[in-house]
Amino acid sequence: YYDALDAFRIMGIPVEVLPYAPPVNESYLPYNPYHENPDVLKRLIKNKKVLIFPNISGFNQTDSELIKHLLENGGTVIAFGPRIPMGTSYDRSLIFGIEKLDTNKIHNEIIDLHSFDKNFGNNKRWELGRVKLPVWKSTGAKVIAVFEDGSPAVVLNKYGKGKAVSILTDAKTAAQKFPNLVRDIFDDVGIERYVDIIGTNKNTDVAVTKIENGFNVAIINHNDTKLDVTLKPLIKTSFQNSQNWIDLVSNKEIAKLKNNNPLKITVMPKSFRLIRMHE
Fold first, then answer.
1. pLDDT of res. 147
2. pLDDT given at position 136
3. What is the pTM of this model?
4. Residue 47: Cβ within 10 Å count
5. How far is the C-alpha of 171 from the C-alpha of 76, rounded, in Å?
6. Contact indicator for 156, 141 with CB cutoff of 8 Å
7. For residue 80, is it left (φ>0), alpha (ψ between -120 and 50) or beta?
8. Which of 49, 144, 170, 195 could share a disulfide with 154, CB 3.0–4.6 Å?
9. Which long-range contacts (CB under 8 A, 24 or more apart) does 54-58 make?
10. Nearest-CA neighbor of 189 among 79, 69, 109, 40?
C-alpha cells in the first residue's frame, strides 16, 4: 500500500483510503463482517467512487460480493498488477476478462493501441527498462495497450453495467514509466478529475476540491529541495472568459490565463502552496 500511495503522489492524483464498515449487526471486534454491507455499496455507487486494487492477490467472500455487485450496478474498479485479485464468489476471468499463463517474461516497452495520450502529445510508446512480469491473455477484455511482444499490458473489461480495468504492471512502475497513459485511462473510465498536477514525487501530498467554476489545489512539499510544478486545468471553461489563478495564502492573483493554459509554480522546501483557479 505504501508503494501504491507513493505512485499516486508521483502522478499528482489525490486518493482516499476507504475503510470497509461492516453491517451494524456485525459491528464488533475484530470487524471481520460475514455479510456484505448494502449501505457501503449504495454509497460507493451514489458517490461514483472508483476502487483501486494495488497488487492484491485475492478477496474473501464479503469483499468479493461487494466488488461483483458494484460492477453489476455500474461501478468501476482498477487493478494494478502483477497480481490481479481472485475472488471467492466471482470468477476472475469473467470480472477482469483476463487469464494468467504459467510463464513470466521480461518486458521493456508498452505500446498504446488507442491513442489515449490526448493531453500530452502523440506519444504512444513508453520504455519500461527491464521488468519481469507474468504473461496474461485476454478472455474477452478490450486490450488498450500491449507490451513489445503483443501480450496485454492494459485491458478494459465490461461486467454487468460496470467496468474493470487491469494495468498489469505495479502502480509505482506505471506512475514512473507511463503516468500520462494512466491519467488518460482514468479519465476515459469516468474518474472525475479537475487538474493535472505534473512534477510531484513520492515526497509530496496533494488535494483537490471542486468549487463553482473552478477548483482549489493544495500541494505539500516534504522534500529538502524546491519543487517546480505545472497545473493543467481539465474542466470545461467558457471560451470568452479568463481563468484567474489566486494564491489563497497571500490572497493575491498569480496569473490570468485562457484556453486551459497551464500554470507553472514553485513550492519551496518543507512548505506548501494553496491555489485557486476560477473563471
1. 96
2. 97
3. 0.90
4. 7
5. 17
6. yes
7. beta
8. 144
9. 54/1, 54/3, 54/4, 54/7, 54/80, 54/170, 54/171, 55/3, 55/4, 55/80, 55/81, 55/82, 55/83, 55/170, 55/171, 56/83, 56/85, 57/83, 57/85, 57/86, 58/85, 58/86, 58/87, 58/88
10. 79
Amino acid of residue 49: K
What cell does 109 get?
Answer: 516497452
Q: What are phi and psi of 161, to 5 degrees?
A: -95, 0
* 151 membership: H or E segment, kind and range: none
Query: Whose CA is closest to 204, among 217, 186, 213?
Result: 217
Burial (CB count within 10 angstroms: exposed 0-12, middle 13-18, buried 19+), residue 230: middle
CB atoms under 10 Å from CB of 125, counted, come to 12
pLDDT at residue 120, as a whole number? 47
Burial class (CB in 10 A: 0-12, 13-18, 19+), 7: buried
Crossing angle between the packed helical segments 61-72 and 38-46, to the nearest 10 degrees: 40
pLDDT tens by residue, 10-19: 999 999 888 7
Read off the amino acid at residue 208.
Answer: V
Q: What angle do CA 249, 232, 14 make, to 5 degrees?
A: 70
- Low-confidence stretches of the chain (pLDDT < 50) are 120
What does DSSP say about strands 142-147 and 125-138: parallel, antiparallel, or unpaired?
unpaired
Measured from the Cβ of residue 169, the count of other Cβ atoms closer than 10 Å reads 24
pLDDT at 261: 92
